[in-house]
Structure formats: C-alpha cells, structure tokens
Amino acid sequence: MNNEEYKGLMVFAEQREGKIHPVAYELLGKGTEIAQKLNIEVSAVVLGSDLGDEINELFYYGAEKVYSYNHPVLADFDLLNYKHNVARLINEVKPETLLIGATHLGRSLAPRIAAAVNTGLTADCTALEVGDEGNLVQIRPAFSGNILAHIRTTTRPQMATVRYKVMQKLPRDPSRKGEIIEKEPEIIESVLKIVSKESSGGVNIAEADVIVCGGRGVKSSTDFELLQDLADAFGGIVGCTRPIVDDGWMGKEHQVGFSGNTVKPKLYIAVGLSGSPQHLAGMRDSDVIVAINADPSAPIFKLADYGVVGDLYEVVPKLAAEARQRS
Amino acid sequence: MDIIVPVKQVPDMERVKFDTEAGRIDRSSASGEINPFDLNALETAVQLKEKLGGTVTTISMGPPQAETSVRDSLARGADRGILLVGKEFAGADTWATSYALAAAIQKLGKWNIIICGEKTVDGDTGQVGPEIAEWLDIPHVAYVSEIRDASESGITVVCEMEADHYGIESPLPTLITVTKDINVPRLPSFADKMKARKAEIEQWGASDLSEFADPTNLGLKGSPTRLNKVVIPSEEGRKGEVFRGSPEDATKKIADALQALGVLGSAK
C-alpha cells in the first residue's frame, strides 16, 4: 500500500428513514477543521433511496463533494450492500481518512469495511487531532472510560468511528454548495432480510438535553413519577440504571451505562444512584452533573458538579418546584 | 448445530487499578475472567445446542493464563476449548485479532454459527466479531437482543439499532454479536467445574494456523493501528460542590447555579 496515494477526508453519512443522522454533520464539522489544517478536501458518502433535498444538507454542514448511491435496496441498512459499495468507493477514491458515526449501524458496518479494504479501525473516538506528520491521532476511552488511548493508523485510509454528540457541527449555511457525484451502486444479493421494524415509543435518550436518571434509591416503580415530574420541569426525559431495567420498571431504551446508552446531555441529574463504574462510563461526559443521594460516600459525588446529600423524596419535588418557578 | 464462541479474558473491572501518573493499567491488580458480554454469547450458544443438538466450541487468543477462561467456558457448557497462544499473537489490534481467530475458525472447518459478545469491557470496540465475519465472507448481525427462531437453514433475530428494533433473517453460516439483554448466563455447577478442571484445553500456535494465516498479519507486526500513548484522566474540572443541610436551601443553591450556567430558566 502506498500511503501517498490517499488524499482527502471522507465522512460516511448514515441515514435512517431518509433522514441523515446528525452525527454526520458533526463529523463534517470536525472534518472541515482537520481539512483546513492539512489543506485537503472534505467529502461525504451517502447510501439511500430517493433522498432528494436531504443530500444538500451535507453541503450546508461542510461537505465539498457528496458521493451519492441511490437504490431501493439501500433505503434500509443492508449491511452487505453498504459494505460492498463503500469498500469499492474507497478503493476508487482513496481517501486518506474515513470517519463514521459510532452509532449501532456505524459500529456494525465500519469493521466490515476495514477488513474488506485491509486497513486499521479505531472504535468510538471522542477526540481527533492532527499529528506531527499530518496523520490522524485518534483518541478514545477504554476500560469503561478509565483510560484514554491515543492511537494512530499505519495503513490508509485511517478509519475511525466517532461518538455522537462529541464533535461540533458548523452552523447550517444553506448558501453553501458542492458537487454531487451520482454513483451507480453495484447491488449484490441481499441475504440478510429485514422481516419486522419496531420503534420503542420514540424515546431516544442519547438525544436528550436534560436527563433525570434514577437508580436503586428509588423505592418503587411508581415513584419514578417524581423523577418524571422533575424531568418535565427541566424539559428533559427520565433515564435509569441497569438494575431498574432488570426489575422491569423501565424499558432498555431508558438505560444509561456501559451496557445501555451512552449519553452526553447538557444537564444530568442523578437521583438515588451510587455511580457504579459501568454507570459512570455511560454519562461521565455530560456537561453538568447534579447528584442527589442520601449516602455522602456514593462515588457519583466525585463526578458531580453539584450534589445534595439528602432524601431524594424531599429533594426531588423541591428542585422541580424551584425549576418551575424560574422557567 | 455447531457453534463457535470466541471469548476474551479481561481483568475484573471492579478491581483493576489505574496508575494515573505512569499512564498504565496495572493488570496484576485484578484477576482475569471471561469478558462478561462473552458469557451472554456462551449462554446463547448453549441454549441453541440444548434446543437443536450439536456442539459448542470456544476459542480464545491470549497469554498462557487465558487458559483459565477457556476452562471456565467448558464449565459453562462448551464442549471444546481452544487457546491461540504464543508470542506471534501478542500485541494484536482488532484487525490482527480477528484475522487470527478467523484462521482458527477456518481450521476447525465444520460450524454453522459464530456467536460473539457485543464488545469487551476492556477494549470496548465491538469490532472483532464483524471483522471475523468479513474474513470468512459470511453475513453478520450485530446488537442481537433476542433469537426468535433458529433451525439448520437459518436464524431470525432481533437487532437493536438504538431505539429501533429490527427483525432480521440470516441464512447459515452466519455470525451474530449479542447484547447483555439476550439472557442471564447460568452459573456453572460444582460438578461442571470439576469436570472442566480435568478437561484438555487445546493450544494452537501460529504454526498450527499456517495453512490459513500469513504470519506477517499476526500480532503487533500485523496490526495496522498502534497505541501512541495512554492517558488516565483524573476527574478534575468538576466543581464538586456538595450541599448538606436543609433540602430547601440546597435546592435553591443548585437552582441558582444551574441558572447561572444557562441550563435552567431565563438564562436559556
């Protein structure tokens, strides 16, 4: 492999139901910053079916070029067709860097592409820097967020999946234009068949700006109404720890932690949860953390910006009332 | 139904210590155990075997002490355990790890499904499973939270895509990676543990894989990603203001602070 042949930075733009996932815009923002340092081009690749004007959004957020694959088979995530066509594009265009959002789709697809084009892949990055020789320094948490590893890739493209809500997107600018390159997809037999689709009632905790998260300190499932009321007062949604899901009090889509959802809200209010390493791994990057717990030695206080040592049954309604008064 | 479960030995995450100043993980501070997510994969495999017959084989790659984890997998229901061991394998990233495991799976020859844990608790990449599938040129489904149906011809699973749940049908052979929600792994009985203690763990070195693996693709030498350094972040930078005393007083102070930060009220 001759690394010199590889030029430019490419972002894989995931779409679901015809809407581009906002992590793609964040990657274009970061990609633009990197590209300016290196004086290279930023492109995006998107696969879908009749995406129409949605594709222009990629230009508004910083793409100079968009490689578009349009085919009914590509409407939903068809793993093998996605992999086949993105791998072909990489071999043709030879980008120096390929960034993919670390969504479930991205983390399932990216390793296949990396193995198919024989290159290294770094998972779930939370920071990207330009190294001394213009190479990409990929920074990622490991060991449940206890360490940050700095990784470089000796092969090309340098591939990384990047966590959602970590990078900054550029302000949307509809006057920005770019070049759409319509690519003819090569469709292979779809052996994986989607036979059903369900959505868990629209709760997407990773998107929430405010999360009120409850743990074992909440004594019964109906007591979660107190947390819901506090969440309503802040315009947020309710989350929970793993034991609450295991007890069947709330659905998995509400679970915050290593085996649930990783979140990064503007405000995280931890209620009656001690802060196990597995839980902290899912929320430690929240902008502001408030902890309410009766036990002053609970580890969550070490991570909190503000804490109240007290009975959640007293504190939660009072904080909700304070919030309502001031909003 | 012949099933393969790749497993990794990881440090006990509740006990492992981190040296903030030296920027390293003190692996001697915690004993090794099977990656918790791999226990769900193993349980899935054992349940399928109980339903459909067949065998479960576990494969691990690691230092000699990883043998204890392979042995543990036998106590938990696997029929055969293989450890890829030797300095040629050391220092492998996900690319080189998946390459070696795929070569070992090709050497095994006869299998229908490969079941992996969603990710490991130490590396947390979730990449090795899908990469194995690519090397073997078979489909895969990641983030499987339920198996709806399985037969000799195919498998129907529920795949979690964040808030969306997709039912997906895959022909065999295939690979799936499973989440912790798929089951609750059983604890091995004393009798199973005793039996596993006496079982033979097959050890394969790089030379055993020569038919299927190019030795230059193994270990650190074969790894396209390199670790520049490790930083152990401290939790500084948080204000850490803890209020005791009356709830009225504490909530007022917190509301003041949140208002000043713009996450509450008029400053929004």
Keywords:
heterodimer; A: 327 residues; alpha/beta; Rossmann fold; B: 268 residues; 9-stranded mixed sheet
Per-chain topology:
The complex is a heterodimer of chains A (327) and B (268).
Chain A: E1 9-13, E2 15-16, E3 19-20, H1 22-38, E4 42-48, H2 56-60, E5 65-70, H3 79-93, E6 97-101, H4 104-116, E7 121-125, E8 127-130, E9 136-142, E10 147-153, E11 158-162, E12 179-183, E13 193-199, E14 210-214, H5 224-234, E15 237-240, H6 242-246, E16 267-271, H7 277-280, E17 288-293, H8 300-303, E18 306-309, H9 312-326
Parallel strand pairs in A: 1-4, 1-6, 4-5, 5-12, 6-11, 7-11, 14-15, 14-16, 16-17, 17-18
Antiparallel strand pairs in A: 2-3, 8-9, 9-10
Helix pairs in contact in A: 3-4, 5-9
Chain B: E1 2-7, E2 9-11, E3 17-19, E4 24-26, E5 32-34, H1 36-52, E6 55-61, H2 67-75, E7 80-84, H3 94-108, E8 113-117, H4 128-136, E9 140-150, E10 154-161, E11 164-171, E12 174-178, H5 190-198, E13 202-204, E14 225-231, E15 241-243, H6 247-261
Parallel strand pairs in B: 1-6, 1-8, 6-7, 7-13, 8-12, 9-12
Antiparallel strand pairs in B: 2-5, 3-4, 9-10, 10-11
Helix pairs in contact in B: 2-5, 3-4
Structural notes for this entry:
The complex is a heterodimer of chains A (about 325) and B (about 270). With about 325 residues, chain A is an alpha/beta fold. Chain A folds into 2 domains: about 5-185, Rossmann fold; about 205-325, 3-Layer(aba) Sandwich (Rossmann fold), CATH 3.40.50. Chain A has helices at about 20-40, 55-60, 80-95, 105-115, 225-235, 240-245, 275-280, 300-305, 310-325; strands at about 10-15, 15, 20, 40-50, 65-70, 95-100, 120-125, 125-130, 135-140, 145-155, 160, 180-185, 195-200, 210-215, 235-240, 265-270, 290-295, 305-310. In chain A, the strands form 4 sheets. A 7-stranded parallel sheet of chain A has the order 7-11-6-1-4-5-12, with helices on both faces. In chain A, a hairpin with a 4-residue loop joins strand 9 (about 135-140) and strand 10. In chain A, helix 3 packs across helix 4 and helix 5 packs parallel to helix 9 (about 310-325). Chain B has about 270 residues and is an alpha/beta fold. In chain B, about 30% of the residues lie in helices and about 30% in strands. Chain B has helices spanning about 35-50, 65-75, 95-110, 130-135, 190-200, 245-260; strands at about 1-5, 10, 15-20, 25, 30-35, 55-60, 80-85, 115, 140-150, 155-160, 165-170, 175-180, 200-205, 225-230, 240-245. In chain B, the strands form 3 sheets. A 9-stranded mixed sheet of chain B has the order 11-10-9-12-8-1-6-7-13, with helices on both faces. In chain B, strands 2-5 form a two-stranded antiparallel sheet. Chain B starts with a strand and ends in a 7-residue tail after the last helix. The model of chain B has no long low-confidence stretch (mean pLDDT about 90). The interface between A and B is large, with 89 and 84 residues.
